[in-house]
Amino acid sequence: MSGYNNILVGLDLSEESSQVLDRAAQIAADGNATMSLAHIIEPLTFAYGGDVPMDLSEVQEQLQNQAKEQLGKAAASLNIPADRQHVVLGQPATEIHRIAEESGCDLIVIGSHGRHGLALLLGSTANGVLHGAGCDVLAVRVHSSAE
Question: What span, in angstroms and rounded, lies between the C-alpha atoms of 49 and 138?
Answer without folding.
Answer: 42
